[in-house]
Amino acid sequence: MAEPGAVARLEEDLTCPICLGIYSNPVSLSCGHSFCKECIQEVHSHQHCRQGPSRCPVCYAQADPTMELQPNIQLRSIVQKFLDAPTHQEEEKREVQCEEKGENSGQQDEVILCDFCLQEPQPATKTCLGCEASLCQAHLSKHSTKSPLKDHVLVEPCDAQLLAERRCPQHGKLLECYCKTDSVCICVLCCVTSSHKNHKITTLEEAFGQAQGVFPETLKAVKAHEAALYQSIENLLKQKEEVKTKESLCRNRLESLFEEMCLQLDNKKGEVLKALSHNEEQQLFQIQTQIEKHKEGKDAASHDVQELEALRDQKDLLLFTKAFAAIQARKRKPVPMKAVVELPTPPIIVDELTTDTTLRLFRQFLSDMQSLFKAPPGQTMITEKDFCTALKVVRVELDCRRNTLSFYNASVNDGDPAESLRLIERVSIPSNYPVHATFSLSHGSLKLL
Questions:
Q1: % of the chain beyond a pLDDT of 90
Q2: Phi, psi of 126 (to 5 degrees)
Q3: Kind plus residue range of the DSSP H or E element containing 206
């Protein structure tokens, strides 16, 4: 006979991550995770309604909606054998019995008993806030006939903890007023003696009515906030895929380029790919960080929605107002229309123009390769840049104090001498390196080497 612990561990492995029940007609996605067929179909249908891609609920891997879900026959067989096992059936019976006992004991705990019944206390029908006592129907009838007690406030049966929440912790009086300035429930003494003296005060009934008036709008706003966070997460996931695609394309071009440059570039190839991978990790890390922040915000918004949905049916004025004021006071950062992370500039840009130029200057590039990526001691490449301006005369200025080399347009444009002072490019020079600058004018453009 299997040990109970082993049965529990096996049952955990046979549990659907969506419905948290034993697999029913299990199917598998391309990522390898399995779910109940109806559960994963419902999730994909919900994702399709939100106009988002179909993804695995466990690892967020993108799933192809056109592919038919593959039945997991082996898993289905294991589930059936587990369900037919006598040990599992006995545990199910014990769980049902425990649940029934728990429900019965829970129901007994929830019943508020009358404080005036001496022999067998009967369930209370009302709680008097003035007497701070719960009354059954018989004692409630006697309570209502006494003139001094007719003005007492009666509410639904509640325990001592809820009664304490209805009283001001400072003055011990009933919370019958609402401070609009601080968005809190207060007693009458708070209105005239405490820090709420000059605040805007209203009755609890009026506050309840106003809260009911803005409740639908608040719920709508929180739901919109939740939807905006969901859309932001989808946009970030899309941007994440785009980064991977672009980096993959760049990587392929680099691979082709290094293959054509043969053995002389093997060492540099590893360095460039390492720098490219590091840049990709930084970009993906920044995006993932934003995703986690938005997920936290979305979870908080979902929690607020659940609390507001649960609060919809609350008829108690005080409990509703206090809970609603607490939810309404929570800060929610605005969500941008389209969430995009400001990514760092990639260390290397490889396109068709760069590839063609590199191949044409292949022999010359081999001799300058060492200085292109990492300048050796005593030699450095400043820059290489084309300027699409009609240049005729260039002024070169070397500033030894600042270690800079500046190039100015010395061509007079239509007799305007101010144009000759326009800065074209300024580059910094390492102080411990000798400078060997090569530049030329070609077709009105300046090239610096």
A1: 6
A2: -145, 160
A3: helix 204-260
Distance in angstroms (rounded) separating the CA atoms of residues 34 and 409: 68
Question: In sequence order, what DSSP letters do the residues of 276-333 get, joined into one string?
Answer: HHHHHHHHHHHHHHHHHHHHHHHHHHHHHHHHHHHHTT---HHHHHHHHHHHHTS--P
Least confident of 146-160, 239-253, 290-304, 311-325: 146-160
pLDDT at residue 99 tops 80: no
In the chain, the amino acid numbered 438 is T
Q: Of 298, 296, 325, 291, which is closest to residue 223 (Cα–Cα)?
A: 298
pLDDT above 60: residue 122:
yes
347: which residues sit within 8 A by CB, 6+ positions away?
Answer: 275, 276, 279
CA-CA distance, 293 to 339, in Å (whole number)? 12
- Supply 385's token pair: 């840049």
With vertex at residue 366, the alpha carbon angle to CA 365 and CA 367, rounded to the nearest 5 degrees, is 90
| Separation of alpha carbons 362 and 264, rounded Å | 11
What residue spans of 50-187 are helical by DSSP H? 73-84, 86-110, 137-145, 160-165
3-state secondary structure 270-284: HHHHHHHHHHHHHHH
Task: Give, in order, the Cα–Cα distances in Å from 193 to each of 50, 175, 197.
Answer: 54, 15, 6
Closest CA to 290 of 228, 225, 233: 233
Burial grade of 194 (CB within 10 A; 0-12, 13-18, 19 or more)? middle
Euclidean distance between the first and the last CA atom of the chain, given in angstroms as a whole number: 81
User: What count of other Cβ atoms lies within 10 Å of the Cβ of residue 409?
Assistant: 21
Side-chain-facing half-sphere of 128: CA atoms under 13 Å: 22
Task: Inform me whether the pLDDT recorded for 386 exceeds 80.
Answer: no
* Residue whose structure tokens are 């799933």: 63
CA neighbours within 13 Å on the CB side: how many for 181?
10
| Full-model pTM | 0.30
Using the predicted structure, report yes or no on whether residue 35 has a pLDDT greater than 50: yes
Beta strand 126-128 with 184-186 is unpaired
